[in-house]
TrEMBL record:
It comes from the Bacteria. Belongs to the RecF family. This is DNA replication and repair protein RecF. Keywords: ATP-binding, Cytoplasm, DNA damage, DNA repair, DNA replication, DNA-binding, Nucleotide-binding, SOS response. The keyword Hydrolase does not apply. The RecF protein is involved in DNA metabolism; it is required for DNA replication and normal SOS inducibility. RecF binds preferentially to single-stranded, linear DNA. It also seems to bind ATP. GO terms for cellular component: cytoplasm. It holds the Pfam family SMC_N. ATP binds at G30, A31, N32, G33, A34, G35, K36, T37. Its main location: cytoplasm. Signal peptide: none annotated. GO terms for molecular function: ATP binding; single-stranded DNA binding.
Amino acid sequence: MWIERLRIERLRLFEEVELGFRRGLNVLVGANGAGKTSVLEAVHVLANGRSFRGNVRDGLIRSGSAALRIYAELDPDDGSTVRRIGVERGTRDWSARIDGSPVPLLSDVYRELAVVCFEPGSHALIAGTSEHRRRFLDWALFHVEHAFLADWRGYQRALRQRNALLKQPAVDVALLDAWEADMAQAGERLTVHRRDYLARFEPVLLDVARRFLPEAGQLELRFQQGWGDRPLADALQNARNRDMAIGHTTVGPHRADWEIRYERLPSRETFSRGQEKLTVLACVLAQAELFAADRGSWPVVLLDDLASELDAGHLALTLDRLVHSAAQVLVTGTAALPIVSGAEDRATVFHVEHARVRRED
Ligand SMILES: Nc1ncnc2c1ncn2[C@@H]1O[C@H](COP(=O)(O)OP(=O)(O)OP(=O)(O)O)[C@@H](O)[C@H]1O
Ligand SMILES: [Mg+2]
């Protein structure tokens, strides 16, 4: 899929701006603070309901404004017609539209636009909390496995109920039994999806990482499902006393995690900062490739400040790989990028200056 047109209203420094993107590489160039990252944030918000720099509370809405609005025209790239999607955030709630009609669920909009992103904060996929790594898995499953969202929601709901019960002075055991049964059912199912995804992801990642970090040797993914190896229903029952004392649920897929083990880098603590970034970039590119293989069309690839994150060799490697794919790429930088020779016709440059954007034709 790719974005033909993007309209941003009252997001960060933008009052109102419209960009006509092309397929291939879209390079946004401008000085510090000009608004380049904000354009990528707008795309990310439309695809996920949150920015990679935080949510509405973190200054997404332009100062002095009450609401933001983001609208895009998408070519799904599957022969179907252009889709128009939009989200709006008023003082309290989000609302969403597809092809002009309001939709009750924001997730309906998120389904239309799949976006992967690599930006200066992305190292959290390796160095950050397990939440980042679960979100990475769940993004793919949301887009590829239709049943996943219902299981995920079912699990989260039952988990909230169990946590609320655990905080009561006298726990209602019958209710606890019932919510644990729901958790176990949905939780086992979503764990199967996560495990299967990682097994399919591993060889794709291996192929990308071999080029990006040849010095690290073979890699292997390890999955921790979030509890021991017994059925989840047993694990929940066993953990009851401890969970009551603590006041929340300590076992289950909400604690799942995964890690990358390289043959020649014993643990993630031994990664250099650059190796950390390259590993994350390899994950992002591999995830996009697997998505393309599963869905028959690429997600939009966002790359913020790429040239300051990578050395020249890895920068060229990344751009080369993407420019020869069918992906639409939005990449930002303070200077023009060294576009792969022979691919100049697949690159469009945008100048971002004081919240205005001009396309070079
Ligand atoms: N809520 C807000 N209201 C108004 N302006 C904001 C708001 N939040 C951020 N800004 C301004 O928007 C700009 C942020 O731009 P952005 O981060 O997109 O810049 P950039 O072009 O990516 O810069 P850099 O090269 O430094 O990464 C800054 O000038 C910042 O001060
Ligand atoms: Mg920036």
